[in-house]
Design brief:
The chain is an alpha/beta fold and about 325 residues long. The chain is built from twelve helices and 14 strands. The chain has two domains: about 5-120 and about 300-325, 3-Layer(aba) Sandwich (Rossmann fold), CATH 3.40.50; about 125-295, Dihydrodipicolinate Reductase, domain 2 (2-Layer Sandwich).
Length: about 325
């Protein structure tokens, strides 16, 4: 069974993170792409139908899966329309702007009997997967302090208007916080208490470009999530301290840069093997350098296919994304 996929837009998300995998994956067919005014997709994917509106595309009965990769402020509208048109839906992160929107879409998908998934692709990054391996191994003993960062050095206002809008959905918390919060929830579950500090550091910014979140868990575990636009010198992006040791991991996964450069992905490892160490594991018995390998977003589409064909579970069910939006909206009030 081949899944006919339609992209709701062909900006960076569609061009870099979705189209290359869908076009190369033997179990998917890049069937249609929506571009309101341009026809950029035709040169790369001449076999895909070109639609000028999402509404027009949704009327095509051949579309099996709609990727809602438009600005976050439109996610709710387009995802709802797609579900009502009896399409399966994959929504880019962040899922929605409000909790009410997220919960309504989750309920609607169940009512319609359609799959609704959210593209939390950083679950498939090699650095995060290494951290997950260390956490699950128990080698650090009882964890007491964890820090996860997503820093950049971008002191100018972005040209991407939807990321700089003062409307809800713009800013670093919705953009990068969606990744870090998701990873924290996956690794440690729902916190018993939370703290948040949002900042507006760049001159003239209308959206948050700095955040520090602290999740409080049982046994005095504290998980700190941070992001800033003023980090010219990088720090360890993952730092874990426990009763039996510490682990430090760089954020190194090269998939995004390779995809931007036009590298074609595949089912096998399509990036060069990592040979240089990118982590440190220090326990009571030893201290050694570790080398995590690149992840593969292809695996997300593998998992999604299994769910679509009834052979596996949804890799990122909407119910999990609802919990992320609950925390984001709580912090941004």
């Amino acid at each position: 069974m081949t899944i006919n996929v339609a992209l709701a837009s062909f900006g960076m998300s569609g061009r870099v993170f979705h189209a290359p995998f869908i076009a190369q994956h033997p179990q998917y067919h890049l069937y249609a792409i929506v571009e309101r005014h341009r026809s950029d997709s035709h040169a790369l994917y001449p076999g895909a139908k070109l639609y000028r509106s999402v509404n027009e595309m949704l009327q095509d009965p051949a579309v099996d899966l709609v990727v809602v990769n438009t600005p976050v402020q439109t996610h709710y509208e387009y995802a709802k329309e797609a579900l009502l048109a009896n399409k399966n839906v994959l929504v880019e992160k962040p899922f929605t702007v409000t909790v009410e929107q997220a919960e309504e879409l989750n309920t609607l998908a169940t009512k319609q009997g359609k799959l609704l998934s959210v593209y939390q692709n950083r679950r498939y990054d090699g650095d995060y997967l290494k951290v997950k391996e260390i956490v699950n191994s128990g080698v650090l003993g009882e964890l007491k302090e964890v820090e996860m960062r997503f820093d950049r050095f971008r002191t100018e206002i972005s040209a991407k208007a939807h990321k700089e809008t003062p409307e809800r959905g713009g800013g670093a918390l919705y953009d990068l916080g969606a990744h870090l919060i998701d990873q924290a929830l996956q690794l440690f579950g729902t916190p018993k208490n939370v703290y948040a500090d949002l900042g507006y550091l760049r001159k003239g910014t209308q959206t948050d470009d700095y955040f520090e979140l602290i999740f409080f868990y049982e046994n005095e575990l504290r998980v700190r999530l941070k992001s800033t636009t003023y980090a010219l010198e990088r720090q360890w992006e993952y730092t874990l301290h426990g009763t039996k040791g510490s682990f430090l991991q760089q954020r190194f996964d090269g998939q995004e840069n390779a995809l931007v450069a036009g590298t074609i992905p595949s089912a096998s490892q399509w990036l060069p093997s990592v040979t240089e160490p990118n982590g440190i594991l220090h326990t009571l018995e030893k201290r050694l350098f570790t080398t995590a390998q690149h992840g593969n977003y292809w695996l997300f589409y593998n998992d999604l296919y299994q769910a679509l064909t009834g052979k596996g579970v949804n890799p990122v069910p909407a119910s999990q994304a609802v919990e992320i939006i609950k925390l984001i909206t709580q912090f941004s009030q």
